[in-house]
Amino acid sequence: METSRSSYPPVTVTARLDTPLSRWLWLVKWLLVIPHWIVLIFLWIAFLIVTVIAFFAILFTERYPRPLFDFNLGVLRWAWRVSYYSYSALGTDRYPPFSLGPEPDYPARLDIAYPERLSRGLVLVKWWLLAIPHYLVIAIFAGGMRASWWSGGLITLLTLFAAIALAFTGRYPRDLFVLVVGLNRWVFRVAAYAGLMTDAYPPFRLDQGGEEPAEKLWAADGR
Fold first, then answer.
1. How far apart are the first and last CA of the chain?
2. Which domain holds residue 121?
3. What is the number of domains present in the chain?
4. What pTM was estimated for this model as a whole?
């Protein structure tokens, strides 16, 4: 089965809703994630520095140095796990690990295919010019920036609704979960593109659910 038309292969953002979730733990997660936010402040500074170095490397060699790529991928993974645990999803009560690695057993996962070659021309414009339409969209989704990548906006509002439903019913509304993950997926796709980690332009499409579209089609095809 052909999957390329309805998937975004370079970036995969997946999540599994943990059940049961605590009715009230979300009230103190802001306190529990403070150590992560402190670390992520420094990791995001390093992310920006590494991206600048990668910019020149791509400009002269058409390659993103693999150690630098793996580091920035690790920062995005860390940020997604903390966001998923806290107020960008509240999809798990499992405390996120202090790790830049893939952590395959954690319910929130992110991966980016390493590009063997990147365009010298695109590296000059994609992060500030080509990504502007996406910046306008995710500003509505995400609001402002914080240590765990984004805060505020539609994502936080929907997560608050989920928290209230959890408190009163003990259940995370499934439709709300798939929407929240889809919005976060859009944000991280743009982050990878703006971070020069792929030349594939992010689609203007809300892919909802815990799995990427390619994974759903793969499963439906029986492979």
1. 10
2. 4-220
3. 1
4. 0.90
